[in-house]
Amino acid sequence: MNTAADQNGRVADAPSDNWVYRVLPPAAWPYAQLARWDRPIGWQLLMWPCFWSSALAANVLAERGQLSVPLFLFHLFLFFAGSVAMRGAGCTYNDLVDEEIDMAVARTRSRPLPSGRVTRRQAKLFLVAQALVGLVVLLCFNRFAIVLGITSLLIVAIYPFAKRFTDWPQFFLGLAFSWGALMGWAALAGWLSLSSLFLYGAAIAWTIGYDTIYAHQDKEDDALVGVRSTARLFGENTRSWLIGLYGLTLFLLFVAFALAGVGFLAYVGLAIAAGMFAYQIRVLDIDDPAQCLALFKFNNKVGAILFLGLLAALPFA
Q1: 271 CB contacts (<8 Å, ≥6 apart)?
Q2: Closest by alpha carbon to 48, among 207, 264, 216, 251?
Q3: Angle 289-313/41-63 helices, nearest 10 degrees?
Q4: pTM for this structure?
Q5: Could you tell me if 245 and 270 are in contact, meaning their C-beta atoms sit under 8 angstroms apart?
Q6: Contact predicate 261/272, CB 8 Å
Q7: Is 284 helix (H, G, I), strand (E, B) or coil?
Q8: Which DSSP state fits 317?
Q9: Over the stretch 73-129, which tens digit does the pLDDT of each residue have?
Q10: Which of 43, 130, 217, 317 could form a disulfide with 87 if both were Cys (CB 3.0 to 4.6 A apart)?
Q11: Which helix (H) or strand (E) is 191 found in, with range?
């Protein structure tokens, strides 16, 4: 049965006043919705580990007198473009895999595929187009980063199926969404360091934490259709798990920063992020879907603060 969102061309879980609906013609709306252009939080959360990693490497190279500022800035642009393209491709792929599940969940049944506003063939062609944009971006990096980027595709391919065979699909999302924590360093430095590996671990723990909050929106529908998640697994103990996950994120970030020898201002950003994590844990109400969505989106600010701290530390490297 069509919802009001289906009938007006919108989706139920996205803002109806988004630029997509003001700028793009209605015929393009279903494709923008497949790519989640009307919900930028996804590409933002995908982008921040890339930015952290690039800025961390920039601090190390600056201390050695080897940093090319124009190259660093160009890489930030590439990671922005790549995050938008690959998040869109990933969401389109996920929707193709999950079409039947999305039809059974109230929040997602108004999406383009389950509502019938695009065909599977159209979605597949759009997926290929977005992936090609991501490939163009990837080919702008060095050979080591290109190979590293390609290796992430296996994890990306597995993730949509994880909710069917494990209670920890958020871990698989973390593996995929955090790959940029390796890519930024590899692209700028041409190699990987122990610091970047710790950064990757931190981004994984962060992703599990914020996506657990997000998954609490759907826990009742997920239980009905058999979809598994850390939200269902943690249940009433979610706050305790978040203390552990966000605590691990901060610890691994601290180690990554220390190994890279970043300046004091990066740690100021880390301290502010710690306060933002504490705020999320303190106010969380897992039975309030609107608040869960708001706290999930709040993590965009966390990512920005950590990046700005690393950026501010650059002149003192």
Answers
A1: none
A2: 207
A3: 20
A4: 0.91
A5: no
A6: no
A7: coil
A8: -
A9: 999 999 999 999 999 999 999 899 888 877 877 777 888 889 889 999 999 999 999
A10: 43
A11: none
With CA atoms as reference, report the closest residue to 160 among 245, 215, 213, 92: 92
Is 302 within 8 Å of 270 (Cβ atoms)? no
Helices 194-215 & 180-189, crossing angle to 10 degrees?
150
Q: Which residues contact 80 (CB under 8 A, 6 or more apart)?
A: 47
Q: How far apart are CA 51 and CA 121, in angstroms?
A: 34
> How far apart, in whole angstroms, are the C-alpha atoms of residue 270 and residue 307?
9
CA nearest to 186, candidates 147, 135, 152, 154: 147
**Taking CA 176 as the corner, what is the angle to CA 282 and CA 72, rounded to the nearest 5 degrees?**
90
